[in-house]
């Protein structure tokens, strides 16, 4: 398929004719009807006939690109508009463009709209809209949508080509609600809010339990005796000792030792004597000797039951949770800002 005289005139109108080489707005050396390449040099001059020949030669590659990258049938006006578009943006840009993808899905109106998106260029390192590109894209879109045959006005099956129906205004909408940025932002903000409130509730419950332990005299941590296999606290051992003392005063005698107990007691009697002489402060015994709680305190050591595992302190846990809650709060704020920006953009572009 070849470009028509109408398409060539459109290209000439926007490219303009320069018979002496110049640098375009992007700094590329150009001559004739927008001809660029390694053959264009500063100070080069050509005639109008040579400019026409260069244009015809350049159009062949653009025509081939439109035919190779387009999988649907095109009428002459659609083909001319696309060749003008490719002549300006390049074959590779057309191949990866939304206009081509929509056109190959037979969404011709959507493809025509997508042509108008190519109206910006980088000038001086800044991307900005170029008025000449905006006008050119509008002309290409109009040519693309111009029918080559008279419109059908009587056949209901060809209603898409009928321009005499009574139109009504219908503002554009997104394809589905999941694509709405307002819904997406609200979902993220809601999820972050639920997570933050859940962590806050758990922290409040832990602090309440901590205060309960302090009031009950069990210290600032949970009662270790509640854990299976752990050693009861010293206060409980003292209470048990007082209970045994009361029992002896009332005349109750401890149960007699069994033979096995006696034998075991005989073997360990010396060790028990050493432990008894050491007093109530003894909490452990090693091969190096008896270690008292006072010595542990002086040496800065903490004696723990072997069955108890190290766990982070309440302060460390709450510090981590506070950091996570702060991060969730930032996420909520960003989500709210995202919703506001999305609503403004929807109002500007979708009028809703």
* Helix percentage range: 55-70%
Q: Please, how many helices?
A: 12
Low-confidence stretches: 226-230, 251-269, 271-290, 300-309
Tell me how many strands there are.
7
- What's the CATH class of one domain, please? Mainly Alpha
Measured between the Cα atoms of the first and last residue, the distance is 43 Å
The outline comes out as: elongated
Predict the CATH topology of one domain. Answer: Lysozyme
Q: Characterize the biggest β-sheet.
A: 3 strands, antiparallel
H and E order: HEEEHHHHHEEHHHHEEHH
Strand composition percent: 5-15%
CATH architecture of one domain: Orthogonal Bundle
Record the strand order, biggest sheet. 1-2-3
Residue-averaged pLDDT, rounded?
73
Radius of gyration: 43 Å
**Secondary-structure class:** mainly alpha
List the keywords.
mainly alpha; 56% helix; Lysozyme
Your description of this structure?
- By secondary structure, this protein is mostly helical.
- Among the domains are: 5-149, Lysozyme (Orthogonal Bundle), CATH 1.10.530; 174-231 and 310-352.
- It is built from 12 helices and 7 strands.
- It has helices spanning 5-15, 48-69, 76-89, 91-95, 98-104, 108-115, 131-145, 181-215, 234-249, 259-278, 293-299, 314-349; strands at 18-23, 29-32, 35-36, 120-123, 126-129, 282-286, 289-292.
- The strands form 3 sheets. A 3-stranded antiparallel β-sheet has the order 1-2-3. A two-stranded antiparallel sheet has the order 4-5. Strands 6-7 form a two-stranded antiparallel sheet.
- A hairpin with a 2-residue loop joins strand 2 and strand 3.
- The radius of gyration is 43 Å and the shape is elongated.
- The two termini are 43 Å apart.
- The model is unreliable at 226-230, 251-269, 271-290 and 300-309 (pLDDT under 50).
């Amino acid at each position: 398929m070849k470009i028509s005289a109408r398409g060539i005139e459109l290209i000439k109108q926007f490219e303009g004719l320069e018979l002496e080489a110049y640098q375009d707005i992007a700094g590329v050396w150009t001559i004739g009807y927008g001809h660029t390449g390694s053959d264009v040099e500063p100070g080069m001059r050509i005639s109008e006939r040579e400019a026409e020949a260069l244009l015809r030669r350049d159009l062949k590659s653009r025509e081939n690109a439109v035919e190779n990258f387009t999988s649907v049938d095109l009428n002459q006006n659609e083909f001319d508009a696309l060749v003008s578009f490719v002549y300006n943006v390049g074959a590779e840009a057309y191949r990866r463009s939304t206009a081509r993808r929509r056109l190959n899905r037979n969404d011709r109106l959507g493809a025509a709209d997508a042509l108008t998106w190519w109206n910006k260029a980088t000038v001086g390192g800044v991307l900005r809209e170029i008025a000449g590109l905006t006008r050119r894209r509008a002309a290409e879109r109009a040519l693309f949508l111009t029918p080559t045959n008279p419109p059908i006005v009587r056949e209901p099956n060809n209603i898409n080509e009928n321009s005499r129906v009574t139109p009504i205004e219908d503002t554009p909408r997104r394809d589905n609600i999941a694509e709405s940025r307002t819904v997406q932002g609200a979902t993220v903000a809601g999820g972050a809010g639920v997570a933050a409130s859940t962590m806050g509730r758990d922290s409040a419950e832990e602090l309440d339990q901590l205060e309960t332990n302090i009031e009950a005299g069990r210290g600032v941590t949970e009662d270790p005796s509640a854990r299976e296999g752990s050693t009861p606290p010293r206060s409980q051992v003292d209470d048990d000792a007082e209970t045994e003392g009361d029992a002896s005063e009332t005349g109750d005698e401890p149960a007699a030792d069994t033979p096995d107990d006696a034998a075991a007691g005989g073997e360990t009697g010396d060790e028990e004597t050493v432990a008894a002489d050491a007093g109530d402060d003894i909490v452990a015994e090693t091969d190096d000797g008896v270690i008292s709680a006072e010595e542990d305190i002086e040496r800065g050591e903490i004696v723990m039951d072997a069955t108890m595992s190290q766990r982070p302190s309440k302060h460390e846990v709450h510090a981590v949770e506070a950091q996570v809650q702060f991060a969730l709060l930032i996420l909520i704020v960003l989500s709210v800002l995202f919703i506001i920006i999305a609503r403004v953009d929807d109002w500007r572009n979708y009028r809703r």
